[in-house]
Write the structure tokens for this entry.
Amino acid sequence: MARALINVPAKAKRGEIIAIKTLISHHMESGFRVGPMGVMIPRDIIETFVCTYNGEEIFRASLYQAIAANPFITFNTVAIASGTLEFKWTGDNGFSATESVNIIVE
Amino acid sequence: MTEASATRRQILAAAGGAAAVILVRPAQAQRFTSGAMNLAIRKVVGEANVTPGKIKLDIPPLSENGNSVAMAITVDSPMTAKDYVKAIHVFTEKNPQPNVISVMLGPRAGRASIATRIRLADTQTVTAIAELSDGTFWSDTADVIITLGACLEDTP
Amino acid sequence: MKRAGRGLNEHGTLVTPPPHPSLASGGGSRLRLAASFGCLAYVMTCFAISAAEIPQNERRSSYADMARDSKAMQDDDTANPGMLSVLDGEALWKAKAGAVGKACADCHGDARASMKGVSARYPVFEPKLSRPINIEQRINLCRTEQQKASPFAFESKDMLALSAYVSLQSRGQPIAPPDDQRLAPFRETGRTLFNQRQGQLNLSCAQCHDDNWGKRLAANIIPQGHPNGYPLYRLEWQSVGSLQRRLRNCMIGMRAEAYEYGAPEYVAMELYLMWRARGMTVETPAVRP
């Protein structure tokens, strides 16, 4: 079970640039690591992170093994309308997590 | 593993994390020397020129562990419908995999500024490249020095 | 599923995706251990040895010597991966468990009130066992006796999550070891263990943490070794871990035989460390390199 923490201001003025912070629990196993018995631990990472704002994609990231465990990503967007920001992480072994946050734009 | 010369130590550090101190030297002129990194960069920019400037790669001079190094990137752009940053890509020279992250932006970002935390396996160059809406590519690099710490870890 | 995370900024939210393999830890550390040995041998030849306790007004949390970015990670709950574990703990707190079918919350109510300052007092003396127990052992006693559920394994995701959630309720509180005479002999055992040379390198905890704190050991500043941030997120582990895991790390570095998790020796050391850090502020979930 993965947990995510999203930080988005609850309210913003129309046209204001808002900062978005995201943190999700994931070990980002690189696939380059040797386990206790000398066996390579298979890769298991989040590969894609997408943020949509009222259904429209505003940010997309491709992550690689060099992203630290428990990926933390911050970015910005212009507050255009009240509605929903949706966040989706997908990765190896069918990993998928979705979260959404509402914002009021005045 | 894409880089045949990576040693076991680098690989261990890349992933599992030997503790490390990281020092950043001021970046020199752009020089995509490492085979794997160069290849990864060429995959993104094709035959286009990459010019130093417009993008700022910010890695703190002293970081305490190669498992988690704070990295912030800002591109100087008005972020209007006509003139904006399309993408930012980050590469490392000596991690076993040269790509770090690629993000797609658009005018709706308002500000071309991102931050994340990365793993660094060894003393090496980190390169950030911005792809603008006019098709130009801009870069910044930082030489990062990592010294392995000691007296630190075991398997739990 | 969506809600505000306790102790988080307005939009602390949580996600429940499909099951996902738990954290793999460690592995392939022979090289790193080899490096430790060399540096410890060096330590023995050039360290000051005075065996004096740190005066109370000179005590400092490891936080004080951390780099800016590690401090920033600890200071901002939405950037601190330890808070993800806290969110797991909050969910467990409210989940019914065991044959009794009661949640922690059913007996203890709102943890923000009932658990405030609790972990800052631990370990405490448990009369039924005639020995001290730490906070993890207390949680397991409630699991087995109150809920009639199976105990959590030490260092398991659930144990770390619940102890992080319980200990978060003491964040900002002073460490306050109970004035309980029954604890005294155990605390003395802890003090002895702390000061006693052990392991193949013949070092004591005190040699590093009382006598040489603030000095550099390879790339690291030796901290005073306080227990005020646990469970915490350690960059080296890339995960949350307990105080006992940290003690194991130091013992293995000293080439001493580490104890089993939950061993009375660790609880005795915890007792001494908490007394040594009395009055210092709880930082759970802290971040350490």
Notes: The first strand of chain B starts at residue 19 and ends at 25. The domain at 8-146 of chain B is CATH 2.60.40.2470 (Immunoglobulin-like).
